[in-house]
Design goal:
Blueprint lengths: L1 H31 L2 E6 L3 H16 L3 E6 L3 H10 L4 E6 H11 L3 E6 L6 E4 L13 E5 L2 H13 L3 E3 L13 E4 L4 E5 L3 H5 L5 E4 L1 H6 L9 E2 L8 E6 L6 H10 L2 H10 L12
Parallel strand pairs: 1-2, 1-3, 6-9, 6-10
Antiparallel strand pairs: 3-12, 4-12, 5-10, 5-11, 7-8
């Protein structure tokens, strides 16, 4: 019996040491690896990455593999679990909200070009056409809803309580509703589909892109604050890896700037200052 126990302990110790060795090796290769797995979503930010950033990374010797997600939260779960390395389809407020709800530690590498959210026409085609009781469709997720309330305040239609963080504003923070607007929170993707039944709709830039809406039809754009700039996101533990720094450098490179100068028609993109 003692012999069997000793043999079992030796085998267990060997497995443990091999596992430790693999863990160390994995940790080391994580910094030096040459394949970057990016989670993509239908929309302008993933497309911009694949068209303009991926070629720059490939010139530096990296291989970029993309996995498409239809839901941003699923992409963040995969990012937190290590199934992918990178995501470029969310702003800081969304990332912070995900971290808070899930207990994750995702982190931003750098701000990236952002398509502003905007107020679009439904039955009404101008700010001056607003009337008492008009129906406004806005996104229901907390971070984009707050953006919508900021736009409605910019239009002069509502007033948000003083001292409220603009990125955290909710319907409860409205202290004045000048036209007694009926503000309907709904899924972002539903707003373009129901815009003809609304008087106005606030639509995030990614949904403007994916639904094929002409961005030039926007009545009023948001003032993009830091919390709503899109960011390249990784797991916090990977922030200082060589590959993560290569992603950041690509977004800050002269070649990427040249691409944006050529393709930013009608100031469709808000270009953040390099951090």
């Amino acid at each position: 019996m003692k012999k069997y126990i000793s043999a079992f302990l030796l085998v267990s110790l060997a497995i443990f040491l091999v596992a430790c060795g693999k863990s160390d090796s994995s940790s080391s290769s994580s910094d030096d690896k040459k394949t970057i797995k990016v989670g993509t979503s239908p929309g302008p930010y993933s497309e911009l990455f694949l068209k303009a950033v991926k070629p720059i990374l490939e010139e530096k010797g990296y291989k970029v593999e993309d996995t498409e997600f239809t839901d941003l939260r699923q992409a963040d779960v995969a990012l937190a679990d290590g199934g992918i390395d990178l995501n470029v389809d969310q702003h800081t407020a969304y990332m912070n909200n995900f971290n808070k709800e899930s207990g994750s530690t995702l982190a931003a590498l750098t701000a990236v070009p952002t398509v502003p959210a905007a107020l679009f026409p439904g039955k009404k085609t101008s700010l001056d056409s607003v009337k008492k009781g008009d129906i406004i469709g806005i996104p229901q997720d907390p971070s984009n809803a707050a953006r919508a309330y900021a736009i409605l305040q910019k239009a002069g239609w509502i007033k948000i309580k003083e001292g409220v963080n603009p990125s955290q504003a909710t319907v409860q923070d409205i202290v004045e509703n000048k036209y007694d607007l009926e503000i309907k929170e709904m899924e972002s993707a539903q707003i373009p589909r129901t815009i003809e039944d609304l008087d106005y709709g606030v639509i995030p830039g990614s949904i403007v892109y994916s639904s094929g809406i002409d961005a030039k039809k926007a009545i009023l754009q948001e003032d993009v604050v830091k919390n709503y700039e899109l960011v390249a996101v990784v797991a916090e533990k990977n922030q200082e890896t060589k590959w993560a720094k290569a992603v950041k450098d690509a977004y800050h490179s002269p070649k990427f700037k040249k691409y944006m100068d050529k393709n930013n028609k009608d100031n469709y993109w808000f270009i953040p200052k390099n951090d």
